[in-house]
Amino acid sequence: MFHIRDFISETGHQQAGMVRPVRPELSYLAGKFGLDDPELAAIHRQLAGHGLEYMSIAPAEARILQFLIRGFGIRRVVEIGALFGYSSIAMAKALPKDGRITALENDVARCAAATANARQSSVAARIEVRCGDAREQLRSIAAPIDMVFIDADKSGYLEYLDWAEDHVRPGGLIVGDNTFLFGALWGDLREGHGIGSQTVQVMEEFNRRLSNPHLYNSIMIATAEGMTIAQKL
Ligand SMILES: C[S@@+](CC[C@H](N)C(=O)[O-])C[C@H]1O[C@@H](n2cnc3c(N)ncnc32)[C@H](O)[C@@H]1O
């Protein structure tokens, strides 16, 4: 079922400086391939109450992650950047019963919200939220990992990619969100994201590395924010 909230999530947030471009094809896509999940919709409402909904992936993007998890037989996921746990819970729902996701979040209040939401969710047993800087937290996570979802500070994407390349098993997935870098990669930066030239270089390099056909079976999807998806060869 298509809700007006999904439409707003996919197309045009009214938050100052955080406006996503209105693209009719994404509105159409959200209507056909969104998610009708009351548990997840409640977390988007919670985020909206804090003016943070624009930071979370949209329902149709959650469906992409679920598609990948089911289609590639993913069991062990690491998420870098949990916010309130919307994407963690969405991914956990697609995992098999013995699947696990470890979600990392460095903001204390957001981590508390993600932890509470995960515990109250129908997939609590599959989610562990760890609070603290991802660079620290990753040191204590052992290989092999089936899938890493990178959705935290954009300046750290290359460090997260280094870690993922070392820890994801051959055949596993590395997925990066916001890989259009809000238009900054082609010089059309939307205001309010505080993106500097160094971060542009980081994201250019991130996409360049993952586009290498000798190392990855990979694609980039034109979601509102860009999503890079790479299967390690
Ligand atoms: C785009 S939001 C994540 C959205 C979430 N994946 C979702 O779709 O619901 C990015 C999150 O990464 C967190 N973050 C930023 N830098 C981080 C770091 N170094 N370590 C852990 N989390 C970080 C931010 O506090 C923020 O909540």
Question: What's the short version?
Answer:
By secondary structure, the chain is α/β, with parallel strands linked by helices.
Keywords:
Rossmann fold, binds S-adenosylmethionine, globular, 233 residues, disordered N terminus, alpha/beta
Describe this structure in words.
With 233 residues, the chain is α/β, with parallel strands linked by helices. It has a single domain, classed as 3-Layer(aba) Sandwich (Rossmann fold), CATH 3.40.50. The chain is 40% helix and 19% strand. The chain has 9 helices and 7 strands. It has helices at 4-11, 24-33, 38-49, 59-71, 86-94, 108-120, 134-137, 157-167, 197-210; strands at 76-80, 100-105, 127-131, 145-150, 168-177, 216-221, 227-232. It has a 7-stranded mixed β-sheet with strand order 3-2-1-4-5-7-6, sandwiched between helices. Helix 1 packs across helix 2 and helix 4 (59-71) runs parallel beside helix 5 (86-94). The longest helix is centred in the C-terminal third of the chain and has 14 residues, at 197-210. 43% of the residues are buried. Bound molecules: S-adenosylmethionine.
Summarize the topology.
Elements lengths: L3 H8 L12 H10 L4 H12 L9 H13 L4 E5 L5 H9 L5 E6 L2 H13 L6 E5 L2 H4 L7 E6 L6 H11 E10 L19 H14 L5 E6 L5 E6 L1
Parallel strand pairs: 1-2, 1-4, 2-3, 4-5
Antiparallel strand pairs: 5-7, 6-7
Bound molecules: S-adenosylmethionine.
- In the CATH hierarchy, the third-tier topology is known as Rossmann fold
Q: How large, in whole angstroms, is the Cα Rg? A: 16 Å
CATH class descriptor: Alpha Beta
CATH structural architecture: 3-Layer(aba) Sandwich
Main beta sheet strand tally, sense and closure = 7 strands, mixed
Helix content: 40-55%
Summing up helix and strand content along with how strands pair, one would put the structural category as alpha/beta
The sequence of SSEs as H and E is HHHHEHEHEHEHEHEE
Q: Which overall shape is indicated by the principal axes computed on the Cα atoms?
A: globular
Strand percentage: 15-25%
Bound compounds = S-adenosylmethionine
Mean pLDDT: 91
Unreliable spans: 1-17
Strand tally: 7
In whole angstroms, the N-to-C terminal distance is: 37 Å
User: Strand sequence of the main sheet, in spatial order?
Assistant: 3-2-1-4-5-7-6
How many distinct helices?
9
Q: CATH superfamily, called what?
A: Vaccinia Virus protein VP39
The count of domains is: 1
